Amino acid sequence: MKVLIINANPKETYEAFDLYLEALKASLEEKMNEVKVIPLRRFSFHDCIGCYSCWLKTPGICCFQDGMEEILKEYLAADTVVFASPIIMGFISASLKCVNDRMLPVMHPFLQPREDRMSHFLRYSHYPEAILLLDDPRDGAEGTNGSIALIEKVYENSQRGMRRFLNTGQSIEEVSYAIVHH
Amino acid sequence: MRLFIINGSPKPGKNNTEVLLKNFARGFAETPGNEAEMFRMNHEEAYREAAQRFEGAEAVLIAFPLYSYAMPAGVKMFFEELEPLLGKCRGKKVGFLVQYGFAEAIHARPLEAYLGHLATILDCQYLGTIIKGGCDSLSKNEKANRKIQQGAYEIGKTFGATGGFDQKQLDTYAAPEVQKKQNRLLLGIVLKILNKIYWEASMKKNGVTREESFARPYGD
Asked: Residue A157 has what pLDDT?
């Protein structure tokens, strides 16, 4: 299985988060998975500006060619993608939000009903299983408590995933098992 | 009252958020003595400046389009700039405005819960969140959307006069909450037409055919 871990920890000083992901990678590799970790701190991505070029001018391709296209390719090629983010101000980090926003090219503008609401067409036929891995709610900054449930509510209805939630308060073994067995 | 309004639309130039804000501000200013200042926040220095201005403001309205179920990344960056103010904003009023293309209010409800939480951890007085769907072409065709603009004006007027939001008024404005079961078949037909006359026509202007619009450049 191909696993992609997006490390959206913006703080170099928050080493424990990076170390957790390294240990998770090792644990997944032990289970014969091919694992790649992309630390977003190494990049400086443009924010999505809502220009709709990726929908209306160059279908599936963003107007910014700043390396995000490589992440989109890795995302689409993976079986499972783990979006890993500390909780900052009660929400996922701005750097993970930037990646989320820049995923607009994997959608298509056409609208369709989905149960009780409108939704967009999907551009691709296959999408990876997406997991949101948040940091330990017990030792986070102020405002972290109670935030996990709120974040889960925001993403539990998302159309292309991030419907499964884990946190680094769980043991590596538990998280790695949950990633492999879904 | 002095109101500091932050427009967090990342779009360069004209934007739908601004159309709603202009109307809100017009309603707000109807009460003598009220003053609103609009601040455009769509680049990195602006996030920092907005955070500084937020600290000194009496009341703040933070407005943005819904991106991928939540606030755009830049607005989140601004929230992160507010970290030193956690628990230190007693007495400050903060409200939000979220607009987007889908018609139903339900898309923004989970985010609304988070925004209330954010106000709480800052120790602000939470005013509420103005939610409005169906705003996709607002700035392109202001005249066709008088009702949407009128609603923003009315909410601004209430806020200007009372210093608060009226949740009933916000819910009426945000409607429909979801699509009723009996309307779903019809919605499917309406959306098919919309795809043709709105999206397909917009692509065509750029020389992109319907077929080409489904391109899969990065896989299958």
From this structure: 83
Total domains, chain B: 2
**Domain boundary assignment for chain A:** 2-180
Averaged confidence pLDDT in chain A: 93
Quick one: A104 exposed, middle or buried, by C-beta within 10 A (0-12, 13-18, 19+)? buried
Q: Write out the two tokens for A7.
A: 């490390």
Interface of A with B in 18-77 (CB under 8 A): 47-52, 55-57, 59-61, 69, 72-73, 76-77
pLDDT-derived band at B220 (thresholds 50, 70, 90) equals confident
Same domain, yes or no: B37 and B85:
yes
Same domain, B185 and B109: no
Among A89, A120, A163, the residue to mutate for chain B (most B Cβ within 10 A): A89
Looking at residue A140, what is its pLDDT?
A: 55
The shortest CB-CB distance from A49 to any of B10, B77, B79 is to: B10
Residue B220 maps to a domain: no
The span from the CA of A145 to the CA of A113, in Å, is 35
Both B61 and B133 in one domain: the answer is: yes
Give the number of other CB atoms < 10 A from CB of residue B22. Answer: 17
Arithmetic mean of pLDDT over chain B: 96
Residues B128 and B196 in one domain: no
Q: Which of A6, A107, A154, A157 is the best mutation test for B, with the most CBs of B within 10 A?
A: A154
CATH topology of domain A2-180: Rossmann fold (3.40.50)
Q: Across the strands, what pairs with B132?
A: B99
- b (16+ CB within 10 A) / e for A13-37: eeeebbebbebbbebbeeeebebeb
- Whether residue B219 lies inside any domain: the answer is no
For residue B42, give its domain range: 2-174
| Together in a domain, B89 and B18 | yes
Whether A7 and A84 have beta carbons less than 8 Å apart is answered as yes
Angle value at C-alpha B158, between B156 and B159, nearest 5 degrees: 65
Please tell me the distance from the alpha carbon of residue A104 to that of residue A65, in angstroms, as a whole number. 14
**Do the chains contact at B73 and A100, CB–CB below 8 Å?**
yes
Number of Cβ pairs < 8 A linking chain A and chain B: 183
The verdict on residue B218 lying in a domain is no
